[in-house]
Specification:
- The strands form two sheets. The protein has a three-stranded antiparallel sheet with strand order 1-4-5, with no helix packed on it. A three-stranded mixed sheet has the order 2-6-3.
- It has 13 helices and six strands.
- The chain has 492 residues and is mainly alpha-helical.
- A hairpin with a 2-residue loop joins strand 4 (433-435) and strand 5.
- It has helices spanning 2-11, 13-27, 33-64, 71-225, 230-237, 249-252, 254-281, 287-320, 330-340, 347-359, 376-389, 451-462, 470-476; strands at residues 397-398, 412-414, 427-430, 433-435, 438-441, 443-446.
- The protein is 70% helix and 4% strand.
Length: 492
Amino acid sequence: MADGLRRLVGAESGRVLQEKLESWYRDYEINSCDQNLNRCCEIIELNSEIQGQLFTILNETSREGGHYAGVETIKTRLLPWLGTCFSCATSGRLFETNLSLTQDSIEKERQLRELASNQTFQLQELQEELTSTRLQLSHVQQDLAKTQLALEDTKTKSATTLLAAEDEIVQLKAALKTSCAQEKDALRKLDRLNDYEQQIQILQDEISILDAQKSVLQSRFVRSRSPSPRHSESKSSSPLPLRSCSPGRARRTNASRRACLVARFGDIYAQERLDAETLLRTYISDMEMVQRIIYIAAVESFHAAKTAYRQFKIRVRDTLSLGHSGPESLEDTVLDYIVRHEDLYDVQASVNEVIRSMNINPKISFPPEIDFIVISTLIRELCRVAFSMQTLVPPLDVAFGTDGELFSETKYHRSFDSDFTAALVAYHVWPALMENDVVIVKGEAVTKRGALWSRRSRSRSRSRSRSTSPLLAHHLSRSRSPSPLRSGSPRR
């Protein structure tokens, strides 16, 4: 018995029951019906647990007293209390049931009234929203009608504008055709005028040169007949040759000529080089040898053109120095003359010189029955361009390149069949164009690993010694350097 009573005291069930009763009393007014019923049921369950433990202690206590111990206490106190509790419990349950039903009905009536009022309020709000929506719809319909009217008006105006624009376009096309025809006519007249001016200028230059020659011959004739003090007087009184009609023309047109020559150099790389490559492939199966031949032809063409330009310039300077006068320098006068008379350049002599140099070059070879003259078209165009590039200030030249040199990204492009990891140039495909050591147009080179050493081992076996073909001999027999100061019309 003592153990059960100790457990009951240790559990503090009575204190917990009191705390629950106090908490329920504080929250009774704010709790709902279901929450209050749940609290009551919890308290009843806790009370029943306490009563169960008390009855257990009562049973153990009465058993410790024997068969007749505590009988009088049970009869006088427990049994009457049990009877009273059961009767009170029955009447209490009926009262509590009626009370709960009344409270439920009152709560439901209250909820129904709240629900009805909420629905009425919501219905009023919906009616107000419907009225507002109808007003907005009417405004939108009015705006739509206005927009349709504006659209119709715009369509009408656009149709009218389109018709007017079509008429204007037809008129503009007619005016454009007329302008184009007038422009073509004006260009033709301008070309004719330029041709006439050029011919007049050439004739005047020829006349001035002939006058200079005449004065020189007269002075020589006078000196040969009578070497007297009058020699100086006759020399000073001899007529001076006429100056150029447009002094400094070469320097004024330097930028435009430079742009045209650079573009022409690129065109030769893109067109004439490929044509020569296709022609050489019909005779030579080795693509490397074909590309080497074209590269050496380009380099030799520039070398021959520069040599011819220097000789041509010396002859012109010697001739014009006899009768030069005026504010312009002799060098400017010589340069203007060369620019205006580039047709006097004997390009065929340079072509023959290039072919002669290629025949003795040990790096290239050719079938004995065919000569390098088959690519004379490419060589001739390169010589012309190279000669014209020497008249620029400063002149343009191709870069110097050797097999085995370190590849330079600023000077060359790698060919498509190159080894892009190789650092040395195996051979060149096209030279780079330079201006005062500055690259203007990149060239093309082939980089391969080990190709340089194999090429060196075969270089001597490819050198040849052969006689000049009859066609080449015929070209070599021609005059190489005619004088720029010749009578008659210039050779075109």
